[in-house]
Every structure is written in structure tokens, then in C-alpha cells.
Amino acid sequence: xxxxxxxxxxxxxxLYNAARICMPCPFGKTEKDHKxxxxxxxxxLVMLIGEAPGAEEDRLKRPFVGxxxxxxxxxxxxxxxxxxxxxxxxxxKCRPPGNRTPLPNEIxxxxxxxxxxxIMLIKPKVICTLxxxxxxxxxxxxxxxxxxxxxxxxxxxPNVVVIPTFHPAYVLRNQKxxxxxxxxxxLAFELAENTQTEMSNSAL
Length: 204
Prior knowledge:
Layout: H1 12-22, E1 39-40, E2 46-50, H2 55-60, H3 67-78, E3 87-90, H4 109-122, E4 126-130, H5 132-136, H6 145-148, E5 153-155, E6 160-165, H7 168-173, H8 178-202
Parallel strand pairs: 2-3, 2-4, 4-6
Antiparallel strand pairs: 1-3, 5-6
């Protein structure tokens, strides 16, 4: 993912207000409140990116509040962290028909630009991409999540470490993968905290 060095907006609220008005839905929805934006700590060290809202997220207008979100909350708690420490969002901000996976042509340039702005405003040290849709955003060529899962990859622009991992919806269907998702979330916090400590020491 390549992006500008500074955001165009002053804060997330300003960004989302603009997107709510100006960004068309790739699924043709016309109601004013169909978008589900990110939430959490606006200065989080760790950012989680999923693919799109589901039915419960669409109803409550909050990301990851259904079964997938509850699993994320449980695994964060098991690693000694809570949801309020992270920032969590999706690549696509409105629910696909039937909760299906967004098609490549539905992940519009506007959607990608909005995600870039979120990253630039939050300035996370580590991003966990949840599933193949979110992971693919960072690669020019098609890539399988099985090839890169759990392997930290440093991107220079933006300056961030990306840890691809499974989407919690996949883990709910394949419980043996839960230990891998849990391990990847723990690794994200370890790397983020180590990076923060290195930066603090270098400033002394």
C-alpha cells in the first residue's frame, strides 16, 4: 500500500463526516446511515482491519460486534489486552449483500483511499489484517493468506508492520485455527510495544 506522507483530514470525525456524504456505496445502497466506520483508540499502537460489516454491524453501525467481534474480544482479553486499546475497522464500510465477501471491483479506489487516511491519522505501529481481503490491500499481486499468515512484513510507506492472520469468521468455522489467530494478536502487541520502547529509549 502506497500513500501520501500526511493525512488530508485533521481527525477521524472529520474524515468520516466527509466519507458519509461523499463516498458512494459499492453495493448501491442509498440510505444515509449505511456506512459502518472504524472505532477505538485514535492513537492505538495496534490496528485491526477486517473485510466488511456483517448483519449485526450494519444494525448497530459499529465494526466487529457480532460473533466475530466477540471472538476478537475474547482473544484480546486472553492476551492481557482489551478492545479499547486497538483501533478496528474494515476495508469496505457497508455490508455486502447476504454477508458475502466483497468482490475485487467492489473495493473501490474511494474505499482504499479512506482506509489509507485512517492509517495515516492513527499511525499504528502494527496492523493485523484479518483475512485475505484486508491482506490483499497491501500487496500488488494476488496472495494467499496461508502463505503469509503470522509473518510480520514491514512496509515503508506507510511505516508500519503488517501481520496477516485469519479472519475470526473463518476461525469460528475452523476452531483449530483459533490458537493461530490468538498467537498473531499477541505478536502484534509484542512488536508494537517493543517498537514503542525503542522509540522512547532513542529519545533519551
